[in-house]
Amino acid sequence: MEFRCVDECSQCCVEREYYPTKQFGKIGVLILPEEKENIEKLAELNKIKIKIVPRIGVSKNKNQIPTKILAYQLMGIEDNGNTCPFLDTHSGKKSTHGGFPCKIYKDKPLACSAYPLIEINPINLDQKCKFCKDCGTADKNLNFEAESLLKIQESMQTDARYIWRYATGVGEQEDQEILRIGWILEDC
To answer: What is the pTM of this model?
Structure first.
């Protein structure tokens, strides 16, 4: 089956999830270091306030915070972390699939281009995507998504021994007590 966005859907640009656990907070859109400056310029051009924080860092010593950041994350504009700041929810315009349009669609991050593809071999799609929920899976029309995911994976290759995740401290009001902020060393 061929992948396509579902009419009236902008869910992937609105809903954010806790990852890898609630204590880490909700994650933002993955931004590679080489994309960060361009995203900041696009925000400035569009007069949009954005917040970019680290996402994944590495170090060669477990007793030091990351010495290199492999990925950043663009946080949502709502207090609970939802809704991409580049999603046009106010103009009344519609995207090609009838949902809210993206203000930077032609220059969107690779992570947006890869969605809903999570893994390539075997093909694994995000089950929170409406198309994936309604249709099960897709195995056609994913070349662009696969190329984007491969670029992300290539960019994040490292020989550093220690992987760190940045806890955003962002989430639902009822989860505030368990949310952490700052770097957390992955279990080795």
So the answer is: 0.91
For residue 113, being part of any structural domain is answered with no
| Spatial separation of the C-alpha atoms in residues 82 and 13, rounded to whole Å | 8
Within 10 A of 25 (CB to CB), how many other CB atoms are there?
A: 27
126: Cβ–Cβ under 8 A, 6 or more apart, which residues?
Answer: 12, 115, 116, 117, 118, 132
**Residues 6 or more apart in contact with residue 86 via CB below 8 angstroms:** 13, 42, 43, 46, 48, 102, 103, 104, 108
Mapping DSSP to helix (H, G, I), strand (E, B) and coil, where does residue 138 land? coil
Side chain identity at residue 130, one-letter code = K
Which range marks the domain in which residue 55 is found?
Answer: 11-106+159-185
Q: Do 55 and 125 touch, CB atoms closer than 8 A?
A: no
Strand, coil or helix: what is 177? coil
In a domain, 100, yes or no: yes
Q: Helix H segments across 49-166?
A: 110-114, 130-135, 143-155
Residue 42 phi/psi, 5-degree rounding, is -65, -40
- Tell me the per-residue pLDDT of 103-145, one tens digit each, with 9 for 90 and over: 999 999 999 999 988 888 887 888 888 888 777 677 667 888 8
